[in-house]
Amino acid sequence: MTSLYRDYDQAGLDVQYNARATVPDIWPILKQYETQSAHARATLVCDTDVAYGDHPDEVLDIFRPAGAAHGAPVFFFIHGGYWRLLSKNESSGMAPAFTAAGAVVVSLNYSLAPAVTLDRIVDQTRRALAWVHTHIAQYGGDPARIHVCGTSAGGHLTGMLLAAGWQADYGVPTDVVRGAAPLSGLFDLRPLPHTHINEWMQLSEDDAIRNSPIDHLPAHGCPLIVSYGGNETDEFKRQSRDYLTAWQQRGFEGRDVPMPHTNHFDIVLALNDPAEPLTRAIFDQMGLPPASSPAPA
Fold first, then answer.
1. For residue 166, what are the CA distances in angstroms to 122, 149, 163?
2. Is the pTM here over 0.90, yes or no?
3. Of 87, 93, 180, 187, the residue nearest 129 (C-alpha)
4. Which of 47, 61, 94, 250 could bridge across to 107 with cysteines, CB 3.0–4.6 Å?
């Protein structure tokens, strides 16, 4: 056996980073994403396809609390899909719970691999956050209270928004993110060039290092929540634990919220239930009051 990363050979890495294999069938879960998000768009005050850039993919959906929101905390959500699947259209199922609690919810759309590089996706995510910081007051949000959450690839992109060194180039303050909750995230991309994921990501070693959040921690960190599904692979769990440890070792506030009853894909569905530990923790981070569970879609 030839070890490529942390005593794993290529076959072992492929197992560890094959999230889809941890559930019998992802498609019913993805259908729930779609159904819940469509329900949110149909029933909430929502501005759809708001452009943050010139490319057709560079759009946001913005959900407002009922009534005249002013100075509301902002929940900026980044979908997963290993950078090659999904869109904002399946990524706002949590909007009913968060708007009911008084938040503005922003669901991000970005271009997908292999049509674009990871560098491009990271750039889009940062430009979108900069747009929100500049314009969200027009939608009732407070630009000084932006909280970022993402799942899987979106967890990685959350880490890239927390990373040091990019903010001045995009015209935002270094503390533009006031709280973050990466779920099932990838924070060290160095193993990925050795896996099947590189069939669509085409990452070089330099690409992986440049886009690894754990290698670019900020000088000052915001409150952080990490979580992952109970049946995830050892490597997915380790990535979150290592990132949280590195965060805390810098003296930053951070906590793990166990979600053992979830998996890599349905953990995000818990965000539309204010009774779930993860949702309660994010509400607390955002300064939102507890809320009753919404009626199922």
1. 11, 19, 8
2. yes
3. 180
4. 61
Q: How far is CA 95 from CA 37, 101, 147, 155, 288, in A?
A: 8, 10, 14, 18, 14
Rounded-to-integer distance, Cα 109 and Cα 125, Å: 8
Pairing of strands 104-108, 59-64: antiparallel
User: What's the rounded Cα separation, in Å, for the pair 151 and 157?
Assistant: 9
Per-residue pLDDT of the chain (297 residues; tens, 9 = 90+): 678 899 999 999 999 999 999 999 999 999 999 999 999 999 999 999 999 999 999 999 999 998 767 899 999 999 999 999 999 999 999 999 999 999 999 999 999 999 999 999 999 999 999 999 999 999 999 999 999 999 999 999 999 999 999 999 999 999 999 999 999 999 999 999 999 999 999 999 999 999 999 999 999 999 999 999 999 999 999 999 999 999 999 999 999 999 999 999 999 999 999 999 999 999 999 999 986 544 444
Give the C-alpha distances (Å, rounded to integers) separating 152 from 19, 128, 145, 293: 9, 19, 23, 25
**Which CATH topology does 10-286 take?**
Rossmann fold (3.40.50)
Crossing angle between the packed helical segments 118-135 and 153-162, to the nearest 10 degrees: 60
Q: Where are the beta strands (DSSP E) in the chain?
A: 45-51, 59-64, 72-78, 104-108, 141-151, 179-183, 224-226, 254-256
> Taking the CB of residue 122, how many other CB atoms lie within 10 A of it?
20
Task: Report how far residue 277's alpha carbon sits from residue 266's, in angstroms, rounded to the nearest whole number.
Answer: 14
Task: Give residue for tokens 């005249």.
Answer: 68
Q: Output the six-digit token pair for 186.
A: 């990838």
